[in-house]
Amino acid sequence: MTLVLFIAVLVLAFGRVMKASKSVQVAVLVILFGAVFAIQIGLPEQSELRQATGGSVQSWVILIVLLGVISLYTFVIKGLKSKAHTATAPQQDGPFSARELDRYARHIVLREIGGAGQQRLKSARVLVVGAGGLGSPLMLYLGAAGVGTIGVVDDDTVSLSNLQRQVLHSEERVGMAKVFSAQLALSKLNPFVTVLPYRRRLSGENARDLLEGVDLVLDGSDNFATRYLVNETCVALGLPLIAGAISQWEGQLSLYHPQEGGPCYACVFPTAPAEGLAPSCAEAGVMGALPGVVGSMMAVEAIKFITKAGEPLLGNMLIYDSLYGENRKMRTERRPDCPVCSVGGRRRKA
Ligand SMILES: [Zn+2]
To answer: How far is the CA of 232 from the centre of ligand 1 (A)?
Structure first.
C-alpha cells in the first residue's frame, strides 16, 4: 500500500515539476488506482502482487473516502474565503478597507494628500470626455489613484491605429466601444472604482444631463466643436474644467474655472481655427508618447484639484514641446467680453 501511495506522490511531484495540467495528473492517478483495484478484485488473496498493493479493497475504499472528505472541506473553505473577499471589494462610501489603505498607502503618507485627500478622491465624481489618447493615461491614473466615480463619454470604437498611443485599449478589444474597453481596463486595475460608460457623442441635447452632478470635467476630446460645447456647459453649471489638447509633437493643458477667477476655454480660444488650419491627429500625425505626457499631466491637475494640493493651473496654461524637450507656462486671462463666461455675454449657441 505504501508503495502505491509513494508512486502517487511521485506522479503529483513529477506533474508539478513538468507543469502538467491538473487533468493529466488526475488521469494518471485514475489509471494507477484503477490498476490497484483490478489487482485487489481480480487476483486471489494469497497473490503476492495483491499483498504488495494493500491486501484488501476495504482499506483502499476507506483511504479514498477520507481523501474525498478532506478535499471537499478545502473546496468549501476556499469558496467561503473568495465570497468574503468579493463582499469587501467595491464600496464607494464609508471608511477605507484594509486593502484600500494598502493600495493608497503612498498617497496617504504624502503630506499634501493624506487620509483626508484620499477620502476626497474616493468621494469624487468626474466626467472624462473622450476615451482616446489623452483619456487613456488620464483614466488609468485617476482609476489607480482611487477616484471613486469616473464617467466617460465617447461614441467611438477601438481601432488598430489607436493602439500606437491609446494605452487603455488593447489588440483583442479592437472593434469594441471605447467606453466599454475603458471600463474593462479600469475594473482590472482597481475594483474600488466605479466607471460609468456613456457610449454617445456629446451633443447640445445630452451635455447638460451628462455633466450635471459631477465635481470636475476633464476634456480630452479631439475637436473644437466638442471642446466649446464642454466649456459652455461647464460655465453654465459652474463646473471646473481641465482641458488638454495635442498635435504632432506639442500639447497643452489648463484648468478653466471662471467662478474661481480664471478664464474659461473660450476666453483663451475665442474662435476655432479655420477648417484645415488645425488638422486632426489622423491628418497631421501625433507622436505616441505625447498624449501619455499631457494626459498624465491632466491627471496630476485633477488629483491636485480634488485633494486641494498645491497650486492649480488656474489662469495658467502649460505647454509641452516634446520635439525640443521644453515646458512653458503661459498666463491666461479672462476676457471681459467673452461671449460664454462674461456676465452680460451672450451665450454661444451650442
Ligand atoms: Zn470666457
So the answer is: 9
Q: Residue 340 C-alpha to ligand 1 middle, in angstroms?
A: 5
Q: How far is Cα 335 from Cα 268, in angstroms, rounded to an integer?
A: 8
* Cα 271 to ligand 1 centre (Å): 11
Q: What is the pLDDT of residue 178?
A: 98
280-295: average pLDDT: 91
Distance 264 CA to ligand 1 centre (A): 4
Task: Point out the least confidently predicted range of 35-44, 273-282, 330-339, 340-349.
Answer: 340-349
pLDDT confidence bin for 86, thresholds 50/70/90? very low
Distance 329 CA to ligand 1 centre (A): 19
Q: Which three cell numbers stand for residue 18?
A: 513538468
pLDDT at residue 206 in the model: 98
Q: How far is Cα 63 from Cα 72, in angstroms, rounded to an integer?
A: 14
Q: Which domains does the chain have, with CATH numbers?
A: 2-87 (no CATH), 117-331 (3.40.50.720)
Give residue 266 CA to ligand 1 midpoint distance, Å: 5
Q: How far is the CA of 349 from the centre of ligand 1 (A)?
A: 14
If you ran DSSP here, which 8-state letter would residue 220 be given? Answer: -
pTM score: 0.73
Give me ligand 1 centre to Cα 124, in Å: 25
Report whether pLDDT(64) > 50: yes
